[in-house]
Design a protein that fits this description.
The protein has about 280 residues and is an alpha/beta fold. About 35% of the residues lie in helices and about 20% in strands. The protein is built from ten helices and eleven strands. A six-stranded parallel beta sheet has the order 6-5-7-4-8-9, with helices on both faces. A three-stranded antiparallel beta sheet has the order 1-3-2. α4 (about 90-100) packs parallel to α5 and α8 packs parallel to α9. The longest helix is centred in the last third of the chain and has 13 residues, at about 200-210.
Length: about 280
């Protein structure tokens, strides 16, 4: 979502600048008072209506096509496989645990874990702890030779959640990337912390989209006090988003993205009114 900031001494001036830049039907998303040196200023974040519509569409993607994926499957060949990718510290492993046990994610489906993150110290142990607590199966794949056996052992699972190393696609070890591609996941979700700089989001999306990302998940919303920045980050990712997370509690702090972001970020369209 293209979100622009406008500043001025009074609202009328700021609104006029926004209207000249974005059109007569520009919409306000956020406003605040800031200081420019010692002088107070009005700052408004606004967007064109088409940008708002596109943003809402991203927050209402199609539900996971699990039923059609599982119809007539034999030996787990048509499992719903969801991969989590993203930078270090994004919260992929914790998000995997939340998705596996949250009623609004996969409901009563049989879920299993597959770990590719054998690089970070303690990563497998962390996921194993979640798997043991929820009584869910976990398989670890170290290289391509282990794929077939791991898939066979998880063949009774309807859904397999794949946890990957926290490295960027350009600098990542090519082994895990090749392993992930060979698995052909049904969906690949780019996990991004809400604390990430907005100017890095677009480049991150381009890189991970080239690596197969189909959706996005924003995490750590509870660590970001500025709703407007989170809205801009979500818009910059420009990927469909079903879920967000806003805390460490499993599974409570997994939320449906659309209703939460629409309410928390106050992105319900508000047309500017000019005197």
């Amino acid at each position: 979502m293209r979100l622009e900031a406008f500043r001025g001494r009074d609202l009328a001036t700021v609104f006029m600048e926004a209207r000249c830049s974005l059109g007569d039907d520009a919409m306000i998303l956020h406003s605040r008072t800031v200081t420019d040196g010692a002088r107070p200023m009005i700052e408004v974040f606004a967007a064109a209506p088409n940008e708002i519509r596109r943003f809402h569409q991203l927050l209402a993607p199609e539900p996971p096509a699990i039923a059609s994926r599982l119809a007539g499957r034999e030996g787990g060949s048509s499992q719903f496989m969801l991969a989590l990718v993203g930078p270090t510290g994004a919260g992929k492993t914790t998000t995997a645990a939340k998705l596996a046990v949250h009623a609004e994610a996969f409901g009563a489906r049989c879920v299993g874990f597959l770990a590719l993150d054998t690089y970070r110290a303690g990563a497998v142990e962390q996921l194993q702890g979640y798997a043991d607590a929820a009584d869910l199966p976990l398989e670890v794949v170290y290289d391509a030779s282990g794929i077939a056996a791991a898939r066979k052992r998880l063949s009774s699972c309807d859904v397999v959640i794949i946890d990957t190393p926290g490295r960027g696609p350009r600098g990542a070890d090519p082994i895990w990337r090749w392993v992930l591609r060979s698995m052909q996941p049904t969906e690949t979700h780019l996990v991004v912390p809400a604390t990430m700089r907005v100017d890095l989001a677009a480049a991150l999306t381009r890189e991970y989209s080239a690596a197969g990302a189909t959706h996005a998940i924003l995490t750590k919303l509870d660590e970001v006090p500025n709703d407007a920045i989170v809205a801009q980050l979500a818009g910059q990712l420009a990927l469909p988003m079903r879920w967000v997370t806003d805390g460490q509690n499993i599974p409570a702090d997994l939320r449906i993205a659309g209703p939460l972001l629409a309410e928390t970020l106050d992105v319900a369209p508000r047309q500017m009114v000019f005197a």
